[in-house]
Amino acid sequence: MIFRQLHEPVSDTYTYLIGCEDTGLAVLIDPVINAIERDLKELAGLGLTLAYSLDTHIHADHITSARELKQRTGSKIAMPAMDRLPCTDVGIEEDQPFRVGRLNFQPIHTPGHTDGHFSYRLGDRLFTGDALLIDGCGRTDFQNGDVDMLYRTVTEKLFTFPDDYLVYPAHDYHHRRVSTIRQEKERNPRLGQGKSLAEFRAIMGGLDLAYPKFIDYAVPGNKQCGLCPDLLPEHLQEYCDRMAASPQG
């Protein structure tokens, strides 16, 4: 397996490039529109053909590059089937394996941050999107988020995987790259240390988070598999402009 963890600094998003060494086919998990040139360069440098873009959910903090990747490489768009996006080529469903070459992903419905959120297991690696972050979790106050559902998602699904499984989140705001199930069960201040549902409700209810500054553009754009709006305010242009540099994580 070929593996790259790539960091997009505007939204602090991790994109995961995973390639099959036998077939030369690759998938990009949670690709970001303003980092598309970086991703294409990585694919070319590794001699890989992009078969699919694969998003964990309809993002509120960046625009996916799924649509443009399809136009430029011929790749297919894979997204959770329950979101019913007409631009999707492959609808992801729980317990239905998703294969790219010899890579076999296990889709896991992990709602709570959004109702259509999915995580993906590949061997001992869990790509958890915004459901489980390093020492945290995604917020639950928009896009049909649900505090109780996220608690069950993490404690009854993700925390049941072996302790040494690796957790690769969609974001980290402190430059951390990877965690483990054991670490999150022991250290996560919101969901670890045996937190009860009542404790989790109190924690999430007290966050007092600001309204996401890009959500009103990102969600409609991502429901079309990655369209940047025509009339984007100047202070938000960096979310869609091609970046001169987008460092790896």
UniProtKB/TrEMBL annotation:
Gene3D superfamilies associated with the record: Ribonuclease Z/Hydroxyacylglutathione hydrolase-like
One Gene Ontology term from the biological process aspect of the record: hydrogen sulfide metabolic process
Cross-referenced InterPro entries: Metallo-B-lactamas (IPR001279), Mito_Persulfide_Diox (IPR051682), POD-like_MBL-fold (IPR044528), RibonucZ/Hydroxyglut_hydro (IPR036866)
Keywords: Hydrolase, Metal-binding
Domain Metallo-beta-lactamase positions: 12-171
Record-level Gene Ontology MF annotations: hydrolase activity; metal ion binding; sulfur dioxygenase activity
Protein's UniProt name: MBL fold metallo-hydrolase
